[in-house]
Amino acid sequence: MRRCSRKFLMFLHKLCLEEKAKHILAGEVQMSDFEDVVRTSEDVCALFPSLDGVKKAFSMAKSWLTKSKPYLVSDLSLTSVASSLLKVDDLKELVSESNLLMMYLEERVLLEDVLQTYTQWGRDAFSALNDAEFLLNILDGGDKILFDIISTFKDHVTKMESIMENELSLRFDSIVIPKLRETCAFFNWCSKALIFHDSVPILKVTVK
């Protein structure tokens, strides 16, 4: 009799867990709620659809968090070396995968912010390259070197250096960084050449 009562109580416990699992899957709750159900259902051998769904969702979330962690580290000293620079395509995939998660995670919002910040940084970087090309075209367009052009070149060098010194440029494997370095070095050389050109006195030849 006691054995039957014990089995019945265990069965009720399983049913309660299944109902709790259904409730959790029905709404976006905290990860701790999923973890609690998974922990208390470790000894449940019978197959309950909702319990199985909770376990799979919890496992998926843990895997996603592990893969997302490098993108959420704020301390650069804790990140990998240059040989393991982060890939923006992987970041985009993780943001896309986050839509499949069945629980509330603050990291989902944080990762979206990282992607948005990187996207804006990328726009600024390519914009700086386009502006550099525009300035070079102006330089090629005439023989007269104006002080404004020299000042503009210096300002643009500062702008490109600021973009390259951004934390994102140190963490992501971006094709724009080598181009910025090359352009910045060339602009530094141009600035010095323009200053030298502007400082050389023009010799006037007097015809007698």
Describe, in plain words, how this protein is organized in 3D.
With 208 residues, the chain is mainly alpha-helical. The chain is built from 8 helices and 2 strands; from the N terminus they run H-E-H-H-H-E-H-H-H-H. It has helices at 2-26, 31-40, 49-72, 88-98, 106-140, 147-164, 167-171, 176-199; strands at 29-30, 103-104. A two-stranded parallel sheet has the order 1-2. Helix 1 packs across helix 3 (49-72). The longest helix has 35 residues, at 106-140. The radius of gyration is 30 Å and the shape is rod-shaped. Residues 17-139 form the Lysine-specific demethylase-like domain. It holds the Pfam family PLU-1. This is Lysine-specific demethylase-like domain-containing protein.
Q: Strand share of the residues?
A: under 5%
Give helix and strand order, one letter per element, not per position. HEHHHEHHHH
Strand segment tally: 2
Class based on secondary structure composition and strand pairing: mainly alpha
Q: Percentage of helical residues?
A: over 70%
Q: Record the strand order, biggest sheet.
A: 1-2
Number of helices: 8
Helix and strand topology:
Blueprint: H1 2-26, E1 29-30, H2 31-40, H3 49-72, H4 88-98, E2 103-104, H5 106-140, H6 147-164, H7 167-171, H8 176-199
Parallel strand pairs: 1-2
